[in-house]
Amino acid sequence: MSGYIKPSPLRHIQEVATAMNSTLDPDRLLDLILERCIQICEVGSGSLMLISRGDEVLDIVTFRGMNPSVRTKVKLRVGEGITGIVAASGEGMIVNDVTQNPHYISIKDDILSELAVPMIVEDEVIGVISLDSSRKQAFSEEYLELVSTLANMAAQIFKNLQTFRQLEQKNKIQQVLIDISRTVTSTLVLQEIFDDVMDRLDKSLNLERGSIVLFDSEKNILKLSAASGLTAEEMEKGVYLPGEGVTGKVYESGEAVIVESIVSDENFLNRLGNASHFKNNPENVSFLAAPIKSDTDVLGVVSVFFVHKKYVDLKTYLDFLQVVASVIYQAIRIQKLIDEEKREISRENILLKRELKNKYKFGSLIGKSKSMEKLFEMIQLVSDSRASILITGESGTGKEMIASAIHYNSSRGDKPFIKINCAAIPENLLESELFGHKKGSFTGAVADKKGKFEMADTGTIFLDEIGEMDLNLQSKLLRVLQEKEIEAVGSVKPKKIDVRIIAATNADLEELISQKLFRADLYYRLNVVNMLTPPLRERPEDIPLLINHFITKYTSENVKKIKGITREAHKLLMSYSWPGNVRELENVIERAVVLSQLEMLDIQDFSEISGRILYGDEGEDVEVGVDPEASSEVASSKFSPAHLDALDGRAMEVVVGEVEARLIKYAMKKFKYTKTRVAKFLGINRNTLDKKIKDLKIDY
Ligand SMILES: Nc1ncnc2c1ncn2[C@@H]1O[C@H](COP(=O)(O)OP(=O)(O)OP(=O)(O)O)[C@@H](O)[C@H]1O
Ligand SMILES: [Mg+2]
Hints:
This protein has 700 residues and is of the alpha+beta class. It has four domains: 9-166, Beta-Lactamase; 187-338, Beta-Lactamase; 370-534, 3-Layer(aba) Sandwich (Rossmann fold); 537-695, Helicase, Ruva Protein, domain 3 (Orthogonal Bundle). The protein is 48% helix and 17% strand. Strands 3-2-1-6-5-4 form a six-stranded antiparallel sheet, with helices on both faces. Strands 9-8-7-12-11-10 form a six-stranded antiparallel sheet, sandwiched between helices. A five-stranded parallel sheet has the order 14-17-20-13-21. β1 (45-52) and β2 (57-64) form a beta hairpin. The longest helix is centred in the middle third of the chain and has 51 residues, at 314-364. The relative contact order is 0.05. Adenosine-5'-triphosphate is lined by residues 364-367, 393, 395-401, 506, 533, 582-583, 586. Magnesium ion binds next to α12.
């Protein structure tokens, strides 16, 4: 046959065995064995095919001297062609003239002879090595034997390497799973979990371009939620309908799927343009997708691409991906639970806040009259604006309470609420109180001092009794309102401030303006919103609420056991005109609660009120304009049936007591507390006077 000296077969075997042992890479091993066989047989081309597990197809894994297109074009079934027959029979074959063999399938034009040997391990054919020659009679039995031996050696080593690799793969997978579960337990942010999972799949397992789609039940679509290696724009395209494409099908069926080669599967939509990413060897790219699901519902799909050599065990990867999917399912479920809890908590928070606000509004600012309801409404309306507010109303009608309700209901509610009573501070100190001063700016200014305006920065300042402010300070205040900045006494540097102003007065500012005691421009600045607190006598329906409120308040403050008020006493309080408004009512109840020894507050606990009613001098001091000679007259003329009813059974006692007390007080004052003179004036003796002072609890 050929005229060269063949090296001994044993040497070939030894050499190839040594070479094969130097690689741990099964791909490299298969390359190497084919190359050596071609060298040994001195032929031009050859290929190595492996039987794909399960589907009995021979896939070209490596080849020499052929057009690369054979890799995709040639798909031999086991039993088909010479190679297929060898794969099926497990027997090597020499065809020394292919033109004469009916089984031969031509994959290359100039081939005349072929040698094909099976690769067998443990009685199983795993592949075929075939060598081709352009000469007839190119192969001898000797070659067949030698190549068969080498093929079986290679098969064994290949198998070992594959097992080794699978073990390695499993170890790696195990490690990746451990890492992923660590991430899942260390963060609760879903996106972080997704990103980490993708990153690990990519780095450790060469699973590329992973993505997670989740079902959006509102829109009825599957939406890309996380992906590695995609731009935001590409992410936008990641929308599938259930059932659409591989991803949609996995979602719909709840079954994991392997697409062995993305180029040959018609279901593969390539919506994200991944195929072009793998343009170098798209036929080696598989797509694995697993549902993110529980027994009852599917939330989405996790998928990865995998670039590999044909004989890789994709099933192991799919199993792995399913575990990853279940980890993701848990993460999503936990996230959902947390979101729900958060929502629940924030709902509770809102409720609590609302309750607090209401408590403020209705718990301490009492009132159900139309005019009060209107005020409450107004508080809500003006709270969140920055507008200045002027609260006017008689003394004791609740101006200060309204001011704090506005502040605490506003967005400034958690910022300072600073009150200053302009009437209570000497004129010369008020400026420094309001705006602060620099050290040394006047005698006594031993250090810098912050003014109330600065303290109220970002919050609210309440200027009570604004009518008492002198004209000079009024212009300074006006400047603050206009410029929104303050200047401390002795400072040259103005300071920007953000303060909401609420002012209050029981004076008639318009009257003061006409007397040139109040600046009209300041009035208009302050009076952006005007709130009028109605006097108590104009809203008697609020009195019972207030009575109860104050009884409860002072009973608990003074640890008393008072249960309520008698009908008579209630009637009495209802018939009074309350010139001192709510404050007066509050004081009256407080005193009654403190002094009462019984469970029910009764008429005698409110003797000063009955006295005022009887004498018709409600709210006025006892000594003003009372003519003792005329008092019985006054008393009888002011004796209304309502008052008498209220005093049922004790009218004489109460009325006489009141008259006596007033008379004694009048005389005490008139005779400068000289009791002998008073007794003489009253026509009683000293002892009787002392006894009456004691019994009637007259303090002087
Ligand atoms: N609507 C109300 N509900 C409960 N308490 C009220 C109400 N209005 C006033 N009060 C009570 O009455 C007292 C006087 O109220 P406040 O100090 O707000 O009145 P004012 O109008 O500022 O009086 P003044 O003009 O004398 O300063 C306070 O103790 C307050 O608690
Ligand atoms: Mg006040």
